[in-house]
Structures are given as structure tokens and as C-alpha cells.
Amino acid sequence: xxxxxxxxxxxxxxxxxxxxxxxxxxxxxxxxxxxxxxxxxxxxxxxxxxxxxxxxxxxxxxxxxxxxxxxxxxxxxxxxxxxxxxxxxxxxxxxxxxxxxxxxxxxxxxxxxxxxxxxxxxxxxxxxxxxxxxxxxxxxxxxxxxxxxxx
Length: 151
What we know:
This protein is of the alpha+beta class. It has one domain: Histidine kinase-like ATPase, C-terminal domain (Heat Shock Protein 90), CATH 3.30.565. The chain contains 4 helices and 5 strands. Strand 4 and strand 5 (about 120-125) form a beta hairpin. Helix 1 packs antiparallel against helix 2 (about 35-50) and helix 2 (about 35-50) runs antiparallel to helix 3 (about 100-105). The protein starts with a strand and ends in a 7-residue tail after the last helix.
């Protein structure tokens, strides 16, 4: 299991990008880089901004390990946590919850623990099911289609 720890400043996200690039290189899974990086970077940004309130005296740790059929990343902050059950439905109104939407849609598994201070994102590398792939495409199309406003 590899690990990186950063101070809670969004400028440190570049370190996470480099870490993810190295992980994908090491595991020879660069074709998954965009999916993995978008979800993990969102989890780290949420941990920095919402979890640790950008307090640079607090850190965010990111660990990865191989898991059944793929790779898992665990992102943990030192904040107060949050009630992640409030975000069961997505996307939320007014742009709130879009990060949760990205994590849940891109990762094959998104599990919160420690009162919302930790999230585990799993990505199946051995081959994505075609049905899951089509579901992701449909979800993104629906999310990003222009919203109709009734006047």
C-alpha cells in the first residue's frame, strides 16, 4: 500500500495528480487515468475544502492498494465529518453535491466511513462491464444536458 499526505491547500492537488500518474504508470493502467484522477481529485478537494476547511495545520492522506479485480484509493481528512447519507440522491440543487455525483458515478464503489471523514473509491481494472459503462454514459448525458426552464 502506497500513501501520500498533503497539507490542506488546494494548490497541493498537483501533488495528487503526480501521485496518481505514478500509480497508473506503476500498475500499467494509464487508460484508466482520467476516470481515476477525476474521482480521486474530487475526493481530495472535498476533504481539503469541506472536511478540513482549508486549514493548513490539518492534512489529507491518500492511500492506494490493489483490491479484488482492481485498485482502491482511501482519502481521509482530519475534519469533523459530515452526514453523507444526506447526499444519497444526486445531483443536488444549486451545484451542491456535484463532487459526490462524480465520485459515485466514476468509481465502481464509493463507501464513506469514520463519520464522513474517510471515503474508499474502488475501480475495477480487470474489465468494466458493458452495462456499467453504458449506465455511466447515460448518467453523464442526463446530468450535463441543458436544463429546460419553464417560464
